[in-house]
Design brief:
Blueprint lengths: L2 H18 L5 H17 L4 H6 L7 H13 L5 H12 L8 E10 L4 E10 L2 E11 L6 H15 L6 E5 L6 H10 L2 E6 L4 E4 L4 E5 L14 E4 L8 E4 L10 E9 L5 E9 L10 E6 L5 H7 L3 H10 L14 H28 L1 H5 L11 H15 L25
Parallel strand pairs: 1-4, 4-5
Antiparallel strand pairs: 1-2, 2-3, 5-12, 6-9, 6-10, 7-8, 7-10, 10-11, 11-12
Helix pairs in contact: 1-2, 2-10, 4-10, 5-10, 6-7, 10-12
Length: about 400
């Protein structure tokens, strides 16, 4: 362990957290910062690995005990500590729509599920709120109601509007009702076997034209009324609508589910597929008009899946935590959230400094690393070659929109 490096990291994180976060017992703040330092240095959340990077003459067992005591301390409330940091980080977002994504992942085998609402930022996601639930299966809105209301109350005075994205695990009408209650727009993927009833207005399919001759420009899709338009109405499963690969279909004022619980807008297309994943029928419901814009919005949702991967195999090895207590897991995720926030901030700094700095850690001529990975690798390089180049944690994020990462050639 290099205690000088740990001390340098502590000195870069501590000033901002000490300024933003009020605590009754200073030791709670100090231990929190040391846990963040340990996670960033070890790139693991195993307590023994974190403790290795906490300096001092105490034994390894004593340092692990210090970490455990902080994780189980009932006076350490994650939201109370995290909220002022988020407020500072998002201070410049008041004119921008915020896109939030809800998703879940399993920890400790299939014993615990982490459900996290995250804020999309630069193609990845920043944790907003999270909750740990036992077992497997889909979560009910009631299970997440409290944390989502907390997020809505936090975001309401800071951003003009919020767009909620979720996949097929959150397709129930109750999730739409929750979005309506919170005042959020939504774009939620639903199963293609869902029953819908279509209105007679606003239903059409975009079909690609035949490939043009050379020199005649790109082919543009043509608009056709949906074939069921001439009927008095249509009711059935989404996969029976007849939308073919390469087509996009937009249906306004759709009654959702067989019990007619919801009036919404439906956008249907096919995914492009890959060598590992065949094309799938993609159906989205939204409170906004069905249009290609809904597909572009939903295409940003994989950012949270990649962010979970950053927390696990590509970042802090969260998948191998041995914590088996949900309250302690929530506090561990608080430390991971601060580490993630700083990596995003460092990634912004790398891109803002210029291409030469990016190529010191990202060898491609074009960017091949996510914002998070740029920050994490820059941190690692500074720790290895010159910690004096590592800027202080400021807890500030710009509202950046980055193009998808260019995949390296294999």
């Amino acid at each position: 362990m290099n205690s000088c490096t740990s001390d340098e990291l502590y000195r870069r994180i501590a000033p901002t957290l000490e300024q933003l976060v009020e605590v009754r017992h200073r030791r709670h703040l100090i231990n929190w910062i040391w846990i963040v330092v340990g996670i960033l240095q070890a790139r693991k959340v195993a307590l023994s690995e974190i403790a290795t990077h906490i300096p001092g003459a105490a034994s390894a067992a004593s340092r692990v005990t210090t970490v455990r005591r902080w994780l189980k301390n009932l006076r350490v409330d994650p939201w109370t500590l995290y909220r002022p940091v988020l407020e500072h980080a998002l201070a410049g977002w008041h004119a921008r729509e915020a896109t939030v994504v809800l998703d879940g992942t399993m920890l400790f085998g299939d014993r615990w599920q982490v459900y996290r609402l995250a804020l999309l930022h630069g193609g990845r996601a920043i944790p907003l709120v999270w909750v740990i639930l036992p077992g497997t299966g889909l979560a009910d809105p009631e299970d997440l109601w409290t944390v989502l209301e907390r997020a809505a109350e936090f975001l309401r005075p800071r951003v003009p509007q919020v767009l909620f994205l979720a996949d097929r695990g959150f397709r129930d009408c109750d999730w739409v009702g929750l979005c309506q209650h919170l005042g959020w727009h939504y774009a939620i993927r639903v199963a293609h076997t869902t029953t819908v009833a279509l209105s007679r207005d606003g239903c059409y399919v975009l079909k690609p034209r035949p490939r043009p001759r050379a020199g005649h420009g790109p082919a543009r899709p043509t608009r056709h009324l949906w074939k069921g338009q001439r009927r008095k109405g249509w009711r059935g499963q989404i996969n029976a609508l007849g939308v073919q690969p390469g087509q996009r279909a937009y249906f306004q004022h759709v009654t959702f589910t067989a019990t007619h619980e919801l009036d919404t807008q439906l956008t249907v297309t096919w995914t492009t597929g890959s060598d590992r994943q065949p094309p799938e029928l993609l159906a989205l419901i939204s409170d906004r008009p069905a249009a290609r814009a809904r597909l572009r919005e939903y295409a940003r949702r994989p950012g949270i899946e990649e962010s979970f991967r950053d927390d696990k195999s590509a970042g802090f090895d969260l998948a191998h935590t041995r914590l088996n207590d949900p309250v302690r897991l929530e506090r561990l995720l608080l430390a991971v959230a601060i580490a993630t926030l700083w990596c995003h901030e460092l990634g912004e700094q790398v891109l803002a400094t210029g291409d030469a700095q990016r190529r010191a850690i990202d060898p491609g001529t074009q960017r091949e690393l996510s914002l998070f990975q740029l920050g994490l690798r820059w941190l690692k390089r500074c720790l290895s070659t010159g910690v004096h180049r590592l800027v202080t944690f400021r807890a500030r994020l710009r509202h950046v929109a980055l193009p998808p990462v260019r995949q390296a050639a294999t």
